[in-house]
Design a protein that fits this description.
421 residues; alpha/beta; Rossmann fold; Fe-only Hydrogenase (Larger Subunit), Chain L, domain 3; four-stranded parallel beta sheet; 17 helices; 40% helix; binds iron/sulfur cluster
Length: 421
Amino acid sequence: MKNTTYEQIFNRLVKASYNGNLKQEIEAIQANGDATTQKYIYYAMGNGDPDKVVFQLDEDTSKAGHHPEASCLFDDIVRDMEGKVVIQDRNCAECGHFIDTCSYHNLIDKKEFIPLIDILKKREVPVFAIVAPAIIGQFGEKVTMGQLRSAFKHLGFFGMIEVALFADILSLKEALEFDRAVHTQDDFVLTSCCCPVWVGMVKRVYHTLIPHIMPSVSPMVACGRGIKRLHPDAKIVFIGPCIAKKAEAKEADIRDAVDAVLTFEEVKQIFNATGINPEEMEDIPSEHSSTGGRIYARIGGVSKAISDTLDQLRPHKPIKINAVQANGIQECKELLRSISNGEITANFYEGMGCKGGCVGGPKALLTPEIGAIHVNAYGLTANAPTPVNNPYVMELLNTLGIQDVDSLLEGESAQIFQRKF
Ligand code: SF4
């Protein structure tokens, strides 16, 4: 049992929870386990500080050659007086990249699924899976969104909603924010869509740029809040390639939106544990997002979606979006530093904490290159290129009490999409 991995234990616990013999399975694992096994069980069950998502297994990290602090670009992993490794909250954007780079496998992320299984099994409360745009292709080349919807329903979810549909709403909002903020060659904005690592860096390290971040929530938060407005008793589970989203969901001003976050890697383990093969599932199509919302998942997608949306909303605006992207955490840091130093070369800045964008997320199942191919191909199958041509977006806004696109900036109903930085 000593060589049993965190993932194997999670897999066994998921299977046992669905089979109704969780207690016995925990006892069986404990009977053959060691101290590390105990910790695996503890975190796999969703325990630990409710405000944290990354934990150290071994406190004694003073061994020679153990240098996790070298993996943090923000010098936020440090040593205390006794030589123990400490992850500080000061600048940490909880990007999650250091989990896989720790050669001692000493860092793990909390699993949030097992406490949900009882709720899913009882089906008394509607639980929605909201899926990141990067999901397409991750569970099989030919697996459709409709088949994934079936797979999640099999697990007990009430429904599956594409976050891309709410990315469409934010493309409208951010295009309007750009229109409001940028009037001269000296004006510029930073997008708040959709990476918490990028936003976190600005908030924690490059504070002087805060006035330039557009005041919007991420598509994940928009989606969670939108569904909860229509189904106030609903529980929302975000599914993506990202560990930073686990931390974003716990931020004080937006923690109302999302109840749990699962990674693609965890979902794969859950499908394996429950014997679900998405390829064999029935297709239940219900996809209404536009090309713009779907390509948020790859680097440059947010810039393109918002730029195309602005061109349609404000065709006569003399200043167009001139975008620059930071691709990966290192580039985010360098770009923010140069903007802070007054080196302004664009009027719209997009930053993605992962190379390639979310398709390069730490818990994606495909390479960023293959993930991007799927994302672009899926984008091309949309019925509308931007939210401006997408009748479902207007219908959704009306259902949420937002009468027209311009009300996204001022209207009370649209406050669910606003964020103060
Ligand atoms: S770019 Fe990476 S860190 Fe940022 S939201 Fe996407 S997966 Fe998460």
